[in-house]
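Why do we bother with holo predictions? Because pocket geometry can differ from the apo form. Keep that in mind while you read this record for FE2/S2 (inorganic) cluster.
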Amino acid sequence: MSKIYIPRDTTALAMGANQIAAEIAAEAEQRGEPVEIVRNGSRGLFWLEPMIEVETANGRIAYGPVERTDIDSLFNSGFLQGSTDHPLCQGLTEAIPYLKKQQRLTFARAGITDPVSLADYQSLDGFNGLKKALQMDPQAIVDEVKSSGLRGRGGAAFPTGIKWQTVLDAVSGQDQKYIVCNADEGDSGTFADRMVMEADPYMLIEGMTIAGLAVGATQGYIYLRSEYPVAHQILNEAIEKAEAAGFLGDNILGSGQRFHLEVRLGAKAYICGEETSLLESLEGKRGLVRAKPPLPAIVGLFGQPTVVNNVLSLAAIPFILSQGGQAYADYGMGRSLGTLPFQLAGNIKRGGLIELAFGLTLRELLEDFGDGTFSGRPMRAVQVGGPLGAYMPESQWDTPLDYEAFAAIGAVLGHGGVVAFDESVDMSEQARFSMEFCVEESCGKCTPCRIGSTRGVEVIDRIRNNENREANLELLSDLCDTMIDGSLCAMGGMTPFPVNSAVKHFPEDFQPKTEQGA
Amino acid sequence: MTVFHEPLQQQVSEVISELKHKPGALLPILHAIQERLGYIPPESVGSIAEALNQSRAEIHGVISFYHQFRTTPPGKHQVEICRAEACQAMGARQLEAHAKSSLGIDYHQTTGDRTLTLEPVYCLGNCACAPSVRVNDEIVGRVTADKFDQLVSELQTQKLEVLS
Ligand SMILES: Cc1cc2nc3c(=O)[nH]c(=O)nc-3n(C[C@H](O)[C@H](O)[C@H](O)COP(=O)(O)O)c2cc1C
Ligand code: SF4
Ligand code: FES
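The structure, written out:
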């Protein structure tokens, strides 16, 4: 019997994977060629989705992107018997350069396994970190995380070990602490969290359980955005199975230790990715940002000490515990240690997930991996770090991907999302959208953000209409300064990043159309 | 005054009694009501408030804060178009314009035959195969104007099948 892998990841499904799976099954039956179809996660080579793989004696062979009309010829070419003549054949999956050049620690299992198979997970080191943690005392677990140098992957890059130490040391009045996984992933151009949840959910479950053991928390919540229905279903399936098998619950692997986990859905609000707003939302309130201090580590969910970590931060934990903090810290540069899963999206030929140690340049990512734009037209601007990140012109593409190097030029690495635009982009329109997004998504607590963004849209409209352009450009700059200085959180405080960078690096798009190219 | 239909009231009560004991129960309750009924009937605010020991104003404040919750019945299918940057880079603005003009409705509106409701969304996590559209719980990638029309016509045919 031949084994075929057909992903059940959102992007693979969005490109027709379910239909391909159904038709391959039907075709195989009709031809009397027995097949076993495994619905794996995605490898993250999204330009090849649906990318199907056939298991052979030499390893798995990939074909993609497969369309319905290719199925007949795939069978005719003998793909099930290991023949590699088909034009869609990409050769051995592991040898595809895009994948081979990566350093996958967090995504080591992504796309290889059936995401909800506990046996698959355990056959590839799954739960080894948890087993170690169960033998350690809480301080030793926290020390291991500290030694890894892991900084939170959700955007602010705060050292995870230090956050955990604060929660471990905090005294809870009600003897209850929480682990909250921030799975709100609201940034455009980011999908690494989604991939973890869809391709390797047990890794997140394991990471959260270890976090619970480390700080003495017995309840965890995954706050998942409602825009991710596939991840929702897979997470629930995985949690149920993990519980039934004793990896979660009242007696984890017979240790007498307890940890419970529940998925909670957000309700379409970007600001609920901000950690304090997220906690308000989890408590059943409007997602208004809380002033800090007190830190959530001390007064968090329902007033109790709480670890709030991004999916990728928690997903890095099983590796750190099983291989040791130093093994993780051996990757990276400067103070940016370990790996970051970069996400290439937008107008790019080869979009997907690329996990690498910090330090390669943006250009290497765009050219060596992305292979230029999807449209084939010259690339003009790249927004890194989500909707609050700066637009970078070509002159900045040699910046190494490192938190400090990006900060030094007024840009942000954030969650590692990279969105490419070709020359058809109108940067004044992008700047306007940034303000408009802030109007839509501001929590409304402070004036510079709530009102300033509305004014920002109006001012940019006037500039685009060439009304008092110079004066309005100055007004826009003042407005941005006010938002930066007067906002409570990064929503209002960083919306000026994309706006200012667009004005600064692409001034021609803020000139009257008649003067352009004159 | 609107009359709150008995069956609706009963469904709302069921949801509330099932979920009200969860810590932070409000969002799960609102999701569950909307999942069952397609929207959150304004008349249910009172029972939710009572069950959670909060004021009606507080419940209303939460419902209105989140883009997801609606207080009027939607069309049979929900179609969401991603408006975020990665999709913009691949032509989402033109796609939105096409969708609005071919359906003859704007965002947050429902077609006259009540087949579909159009909503904006800011990122579906399918940014590498943009532009993206979500139809109910299904996400579709690389959506062109033609592909959009085809999706819509499939939804309309489905509706006819159900009625016939
Ligand atoms: C407006 C705004 C949106 C945010 N959205 C997210 C998000 O979607 N996911 C996330 O993990 N962190 C997000 N953050 C960062 C969180 O506030 C917080 O720093 C993070 O969850 C901490 O986890 P980490 O230390 O593991 O990074 C956001 C912050 C702001 C200001
Ligand atoms: S900056 Fe904006 S989103 Fe942040 S607290 Fe103020 S109003 Fe809310
Ligand atoms: S930006 Fe549209 S799916 Fe992410």
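Chain A has a mean pLDDT of 96.
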